[in-house]
Amino acid sequence: MQISAAMVKELRERTGAGMMECKKALSEANGDMEAAIEAMRKSGQAKAVKKSSRVAAEGQIVVSMSDDGSRAAIVEVNCETDFVGKDENFKGFAQDVAALVLKQAPADVNALMALPSAHGASLDEARAELISKVGENVQVRRFDVLNAQAGQLLMHYLHGSRIGVLVHLQGGNADLAKDLAMHIAACRPVCLDESGVPVELLNKERDIFKAQAEESGKPAEIVEKMVEGRIRKYLAEITLLGQAFVKDQDKTVAALVKDANAQVLSFVRYEVGEGIEKKTENFAEEVMAQAKNV
Fold first, then answer.
1. Residue 65 in contact with residue 102, Cβ under 8 Å?
2. N or C end of the chain, less CB within 10 A?
3. Do 46 and 66 reside in the same domain of the chain?
4. How many folded domains does the chain comprise?
5. Alpha helices in the chain (DSSP H)
6. What is the rounded average pLDDT for all residues in the chain?
7. Which residues contact 61 (CB under 8 A, 6 or more apart)?
8. H or E element in which residue 1 lies
9. What backbone phi and psi angles, to 5 degrees, belong to 64?
């Protein structure tokens, strides 16, 4: 029976397995979708399929840079526990992912996972194999690639394997770039300057500040001034150029960069698991729930 791309896509969506595994399973099952799923569950890969639905909020941040320093890639690869995050197999896979991103600059994670891995199979197939080996869900969550032109500088900083930063500078030098990368790692700026602050985030904070200020009972015009003052302070706290430089609190990052006759073009900061909702287990509640169902 002819195995269509639509059939492979459906099986991938239902199992989370790699494209080649799905095509093979469908071929062996003569196109029978349910039989293919059952066969995959019986195989070692079934473990990987089952684990693909579990929350992966640990892992590593990895950076890969070109030999001439003109290109840099940063990736986040997740697993379920810190223990597996330190496993050599997992670390090797994460390094392979970063190298592939640097080399190919894929459009998105889906395109990345379809690329051939260092071992020939697709990266998604390599991921499924790793899941079977380490016994945990493994996910490639995100990546970014920065490119520098003549007169520009790229710098990276890794704080262990949990925080990674890329900085793209016009002018300046390596010492300034390294200081900025370490500052970004420590101070968590949301964006470069005020123009990059998401409107919904700013509106949300403004509403909160207004509600707080109105509790003072002061006149509306005073409340408005209080709100605007808090907004200015908030913007200084979350924008890189507005922040006080971590090594000299009397100087803003904007002033630091200006004094060096440089310009920050962009930056990327990744922290393992940020924004992922982690499931918390309560053993006592779990036992009670089970007891009630006995």
1. yes
2. C
3. no
4. 2
5. 5-15, 19-28, 33-42, 45-51, 82-85, 88-104, 109-114, 123-134, 174-187, 199-214, 220-238, 253-259, 283-292
6. 87
7. 74, 75, 76, 158, 161, 162, 163, 164, 270, 271, 272
8. none
9. -130, 130
Is the separation of the CB atoms in 123 and 115 below 8 Å? yes
| Angle of helix 33-42 versus helix 5-15 axis, rounded to 10 | 40
- Which CATH number fits the domain that encloses residue 10? 1.10.8.10
Task: For residue 115, tell me if it sits in a domain.
Answer: yes
Quick one: 97 and 25 in the same domain?
no
- Cβ atoms of 257 and 181 within 8 Å: the answer is no
Q: Which domain holds residue 120?
A: 58-192+264-271
C-alpha to C-alpha distance for 132 and 172, rounded to whole angstroms: 47
Q: Which of 188, 131, 171, 136 is nearest to 260 (CA)?
A: 171
Q: Count of CB atoms within 10 A of residue 43's CB?
A: 15
| 20 in the same domain as 130 | no
Note the pLDDT tens digit of each residue in 157-175. 999 999 999 999 999 999 9
Regarding whether 14 and 75 lie in a shared domain, the answer is no
The CA distance from 170 to 138, in Å, is 37
Give per-residue pLDDT as tens, 23-49: 888 999 999 988 887 787 666 554 555
Q: Do 33 and 63 share a domain, yes or no?
A: no
Q: What distances in angstroms separate CA 49 from CA 8, 13, 119, one per listed residue?
A: 15, 11, 21
